Amino acid sequence: MGIVTTKDGTDIYYKDWGPKSAQPIVFHHGWPLSADDWDNQMLFFVEKGYRVVAHDRRGHGRSSQVSDGHDMDHYAADASAVYEHLDLKNAVHIGHSTGGGEVVRYVAKFGQPQGRVAKAVLVSAVPPIMVKSATNPGGTPIEVFDDFRKALAGNRAQFYLDVASGPFYGFNRPGAEASQGVIQNWWRQGMIGSAKAHYDGIKAFSETDQTEDLKAITVPTLVMHGDDDQVVPIDDAGRLSVKLLKNGTLKVYEGYPHGMLTIHADVINPDLLAFIRS
User: Fold this and answer.
1) Nearest Cα to Cα of residue 6 among 102, 113, 80, 61
2) Cβ atoms of 51 and 22 closer than 8 Å
3) Catalytic residue among 28, 229, 236, 241
4) 165 part of the active site
5) pLDDT digits over 83-137, tens only?
6) What CATH code is carried by the domain that includes residue 234?
7) Catalytic, out of 34, 63, 97, 165
8) 214-217 contacts at long range (C-beta below 8 A, 24 or more positions apart)
């Protein structure tokens, strides 16, 4: 583990496991979680001989609970500060949900221009933009995100339990077998972070238009999305993103939910490995 202090004085926590000479695989977590959400994948890939790195976004996990800067530009700049500090090169960047938006902004603005990125993976990711508008008629109505903010401000602890035990992992579907460990770990990660960062982050993940970021990316990019994602519906996310990427491939997972990287790691991890090795 380590800490990198950004230009505006924010401390960003990171994990860095495996041989420093190995190809780096970098993981970007979703809202409102932390680097711990990638524990399964980090253990899998470090055992395959890779160097694995993951950081806690500002206001999340063990990073500084600062008041400001909870937007994609700061998220990407903070990530870049970590990777420049570690001097990562030929890296594969993998982002889940909001972390997918962070990957897209980072690769387009920092990683690709600096020649640090080999490939990218977007898992159940939010780009190009979530909120419904005249130019994005298939998006999610702003009222849904307003309800998120209201629930977070009113009773964050209960809201996080409801998300984790319901749509995030598809545990609300008929016949689904909910894992209390998975639910509690999601809740644990969320509650460690800052309510202010999480509240502001709702706007960041739902209203940031990343169309131009996607168009700017030229490295091979794998888009992985479940077709039963209740949080970031595939039609307005994965299916649109791959059309904007110059070198993108979409892999659809039938019946998989938003949190598929955790409850279907036995399928997702080998697919990630195959793409990285390809």
Assistant:
1) 80
2) yes
3) 229
4) no
5) 999 999 999 999 999 999 999 999 999 999 999 999 999 999 999 999 999 999 9
6) 3.40.50.1820
7) 97
8) 214/104, 214/108, 214/127, 214/128, 214/241, 214/244, 214/245, 215/244, 215/245, 215/246, 216/108, 216/112, 217/104, 217/107, 217/108, 217/112, 217/120, 217/245, 217/246, 217/247
Give yes or no: 258 in active site.
Answer: yes
Q: Would you state the structure tokens that stand for residue 232, as one six-digit string?
A: 């970031």
229 among known catalytic residues:
yes
Domain housing 91: 2-277
User: For the chain, what is the domain count?
Assistant: 1
**Joined tokens for residue 16:** 């860095």
Q: Both tokens of residue 243?
A: 């059309």
pTM of the model as a whole: 0.97
CB 161 within 8 A of CB 172: no
pLDDT digits (tens, 9 = 90+) for 232-253: 999 999 999 999 999 999 999 9
- For residue 209, give every residue at least 6 positions away whose Cβ sits within 8 Å of its Cβ, in sequence order, or none: 128, 129
